[in-house]
């Protein structure tokens, strides 16, 4: 039997875990981790359509797509990169052209391509720090979701066995998942800072963090709070069970 206090802790922990999983999943699947605000003269340049076409159909090159993000109000995520450009070829004749968002996904091989000390210049040598930060920001959220999925399987087994003992493992897995989520955000921020140090941003371009990053950031403390509740319930129930056993033997 499980005390009502422990049952309440398990329910609250499960709800927090579910919310954290939803937030992290949405963050991974959206592109608003970092966004650039370009001045109107950059977005309304005569080569805006050409930049957008190269961005969508051109070869993958970090400097090329980064420059396009800077100039066309771009947004960047873990799996997506998007720009805003006029949707019609005769946009310059309209006082208020309609801006269309165009997105391109990072393929799996592109996630593992090396970064260079000078973006786009292979002769400058590989920048190992930026390369590993990029790989970590791609892999860590997947590892975090895997930990949560594994903890869910353990929780189901615990329910079927009517035992609270496996909850200790569930708490540890949630703690690791929270650390992975926090590591994802840290790796992304560090990678963006290093990119801006080696890239030249056009005049008037302003960058800011997007809501997708904040969702991933919120998921980390939620997972850690769920871990704390699971660990407390498992440890307290075990101590209480040990005391009851000793009392009955005495």
From TrEMBL:
UniProt xrefs under InterPro entries: CLDN1, PMP22/EMP/MP20/Claudin
Source species of the chain: Salmo trutta
Localization, UniProt: Membrane
Keyword annotations: Membrane, Transmembrane, Transmembrane helix
Lineage: Eukaryota, Metazoa, Chordata, Craniata, Vertebrata
Membrane association type: Multi-pass membrane protein
Superkingdom, natural source: Eukaryota
Annotated GO CC locations: membrane
Record-given protein name: Claudin domain containing 1b
Transmembrane segments: 138-161, 168-191, 211-234
Coiled coil residues, start to end: none
Principal place of residence: membrane
């Amino acid at each position: 039997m499980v005390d009502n206090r422990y049952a309440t802790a398990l329910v609250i922990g499960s709800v927090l875990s579910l919310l954290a999983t939803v937030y992290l999943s949405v963050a991974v699947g959206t592109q608003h981790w970092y966004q650039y605000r370009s001045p109107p003269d950059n977005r309304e340049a005569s080569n805006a359509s050409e930049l957008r076409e190269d961005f969508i159909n051109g070869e993958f090159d970090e400097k090329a797509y980064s420059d396009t993000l800077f100039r066309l109000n771009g947004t960047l995520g873990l799996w997506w990169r998007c720009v805003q450009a006029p949707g019609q070829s005769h946009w310059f004749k309209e006082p208020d052209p309609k801006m269309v968002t165009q997105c391109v996904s990072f393929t799996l091989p592109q996630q593992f391509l090396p970064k260079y000390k000078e973006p786009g210049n292979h002769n400058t040598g590989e920048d190992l720090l930026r390369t590993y930060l990029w790989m970590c920001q791609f892999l860590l959220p997947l590892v975090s979701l895997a930990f949560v999925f594994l903890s869910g399987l353990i929780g189901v087994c615990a329910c079927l066995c009517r035992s609270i003992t496996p909850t200790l493992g569930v708490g540890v897995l949630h703690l690791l998942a929270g650390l992975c989520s926090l590591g994802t955000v840290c790796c992304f921020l560090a990678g963006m800072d290093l990119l801006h140090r080696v890239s030249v941003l056009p005049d008037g371009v302003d960058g800011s963090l997007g809501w997708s990053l904040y969702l991933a950031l919120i998921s980390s403390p939620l997972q850690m709070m769920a871990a704390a509740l699971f660990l407390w319930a498992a440890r307290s129930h075990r101590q209480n069970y040990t005391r009851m056993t000793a009392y009955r033997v005495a």
